[in-house]
UniProtKB/TrEMBL annotation:
It comes from Streptomonospora nanhaiensis. It holds the Pfam family RibD_C. This is Dihydrofolate reductase family protein. Keywords: NADP, Oxidoreductase. It comes from the Bacteria. Pathway: Cofactor biosynthesis; riboflavin biosynthesis. Residues 37-236 form the Bacterial bifunctional deaminase-reductase C-terminal domain. PANTHER family: 2,5-DIAMINO-6-RIBOSYLAMINO-4(3H)-PYRIMIDINONE 5'-PHOSPHATE REDUCTASE, DIHYDROFOLATE REDUCTASE FAMILY PROTEIN (AFU_ORTHOLOGUE AFUA_8G06820). The keyword Oxidoreductase applies.
Length: 263
């Protein structure tokens, strides 16, 4: 991996340098002392802007560099925020434990061994793989699952989600739709202030439109998709400006870190 731009942490590495694992982690370190939740999104796109391959899955367009940063960002997060539709299409499972030195640093800092997974669903529908996954296995215990929903889901659906995930693991935020600022505040109140949003495109647009998005980590892979695949954000009008902070190149893949001005 070769660093092309570093306006985030100049002391970590200089443009032109090759990055080892420690330098890469330093370039994606969360800012300290903000006194509030920090919402980071991680998305991938092709050169022509497609957010998925022809089968509708992001896994089709992932590259080794993208998967490396994907794992790193999960390791640095307290909670992964994802839309229920994306969780179903992409086959989401409970997050795996952090590994190596990152696990030791997380535990030393009072963080959990695994990030949590927070699924956003207006209908409170728990994706089947998450409902069936008990969270254990050969890798050790996996992270827990939270449902983020709203009152419009109805008592029956909310009750079923609570029986599936646990009575204290369903967050009802909002009336007719999910109140994302309230949801992020509720996650922070549970000790989960470092939020990693993995989409899909509608959730990302909603998060940005609500003024919650502090940072966008965008991978651009060296491929054209064509077809009619959607962009990384669709639906709500976000109209937000961001500043480039980090740019890394690896075998044609461009890894970018953008933050909102003043963040």
């Amino acid at each position: 991996m070769r660093l092309l731009l570093n306006d985030a942490l100049p002391g970590v590495a200089a443009p032109g340098e090759r990055l080892d694992a420690a330098a890469l982690e330093g370039l994606y370190a969360h800012p300290g002392g903000t006194g509030r939740p920090w919402v980071r999104a991680n998305m991938v796109a092709t050169l022509d802007g497609a957010a998925a391959g022809g089968d509708g899955r992001t896994g089709t367009i992932n590259t080794p560099a993208d998967r490396l940063v994907y794992t790193l960002l999960r390791d640095l997060a307290d909670v992964v925020l994802v839309g229920a539709g994306t969780a179903r299409v992409e086959g989401y499972r409970r997050p795996r434990p952090r590994t190596g030195d990152r696990a030791a640093r997380a535990v030393a800092g009072g963080r959990a061994a695994c990030p949590e997974l927070a699924v956003v669903s207006r209908t409170a529908a728990v994706p089947p793989l998450l409902a069936a996954d008990p969270g254990g296995g050969a890798d050790g215990d996996r992270g827990g699952v939270l449902m983020v929903t709203c009152a419009a889901a109805g008592a029956e659906a909310i009750g079923l989600a609570r029986r599936t995930l646990g009575a204290d693991r369903v967050l009802v935020a909002g009336g007719d739709s999910v109140d994302l600022p309230a949801a992020v505040g509720a996650l922070a109140a549970r000790g989960l202030p470092r939020v990693l949003c993995e989409g899909g495109p509608r959730l990302l647009a909603d998060v940005a439109a609500a003024g919650l998005l502090d940072e966008l980590c965008l991978t651009v892979v060296p491929a054209l998709a064509g077809g009619a695949e959607q962009r990384i954000a669709v639906g709500a009008v976000a109209d937000r400006l961001f500043t480039p902070r980090v740019l890394i190149e690896s075998e044609g893949t461009l890894l970018q870190r953008w933050t909102r001005p003043g963040a």
